[in-house]
Amino acid sequence: MPNLVRCGLVQAENVIPPPADNVDAKAIDKSKQAMLEKHLQFVKDAADKGVQILCLQEIFNGPYFCAEQQPRWYDAAEQIPNGPTIKAFQEVAKKHNMVIVVPIYEIEQVGIYYNTAAVIDADGSFLGKYRKNHIPQVNPGFWEKFYFRPGNLGYPVFNTRYAKVGVYICYDRHFPEGARALGLNGAEIVFNPSATVAGLSEYLWRLEQPAHAAANGYFIGAINRVGTEKPWNIGEFFGSSYFCDPRGKIIAQACRDKDELLVSDLDLDEIKEVRHTWQFFRDRRPETYEQLVKL
């Protein structure tokens, strides 16, 4: 019988646009609470559809604030796992026997912040976290170095109840090295929560992650938010979240312009089948790659 795992991706528009100025901690908390409530409904919907592993979008609980450089957004960060958002998702994960990948803005201590995804197992336990390793600083609108330190936890793989799960976050997907590390570390499904606008990256959105899946023989769930976020209007977050299989084929895709829960059954037995055909891990020559880390 197939070794099926039912997985879900959530793409969602921000609920409360921040004001053009005077964004204080109260306004930030209101925005976060609105997105939390919206996504808790998505979790319920996913449970009704039998989803076993669910992943949310990058910094799911608010707007993509990296469109500006303002210290006030440091107030949006929370501790992981001891902050209120992760605690809330631990409760619903246990209630629904669901693994949930929860990407939020993390504070380690005042002045040290990361773009992080927490991984919660189906019994509600906190398995660990991945911190985004590759941090862009791109004009216009992607001022992430102002907010995030580069990750320092490597490329962990989490042995959840249903599958071995890895996480790569947004801009990470442009770097094949980490994608390969996740495969070598045993990932069966890699989730990439993102916030990506239309333009040059839209072509790469359809290209890079299927290539990673094929090169490493695992499934990928790629998530992108939707909508045009005021007051910054840096572009259209074009949704189009998808799953692709270990052959690099997109097997399910969400719409471009509205909230959606995308659900797909992934047959983990395909990983063995593909890797027995394409022996990329066997035929690697790591002893010849030293120059890659010296340049």
Characterization of the model:
The protein has 295 residues and is α/β, with parallel strands linked by helices. It has one domain: Nitrilase/N-carbamoyl-D-aminoacid amidohydrolase, CATH 3.60.110.10. It has a six-stranded mixed β-sheet with strand order 5-4-3-2-1-16. A six-stranded mixed β-sheet has the order 8-9-10-11-14-15, with helices on one face.
Summarize the structure.
With 295 residues, this protein is an alpha/beta fold. The protein has helices at residues 25-48, 84-96, 176-184, 200-216, 269-277; strands at residues 4-11, 53-55, 99-109, 112-120, 126-131, 137-138, 142-143, 157-159, 164-167, 189-194, 219-224, 226-227, 237-238, 242-244, 250-253, 260-267. 24% of the residues lie in helices and 27% in strands.
Note the topology.
Layout (H helix, E strand, L loop, with lengths): L3 E8 L13 H24 L4 E3 L28 H13 L2 E11 L2 E9 L5 E6 L5 E2 L3 E2 L13 E3 L4 E4 L8 H9 L4 E6 L5 H17 L2 E6 L1 E2 L9 E2 L3 E3 L5 E4 L6 E8 L1 H9 L18
Parallel strand pairs: 1-2, 2-3, 9-10, 10-11
Antiparallel strand pairs: 1-16, 3-4, 4-5, 6-7, 8-9, 11-14, 12-13, 14-15
Label this structure with key terms.
295 residues; 5 helices; six-stranded mixed β-sheet; alpha/beta
Low-pLDDT segments, ≥5 res: none
Q: For the residues shown, what is the average pLDDT?
A: 96
> Any idea how many domains?
1
Major beta sheet summary:
6 strands, mixed
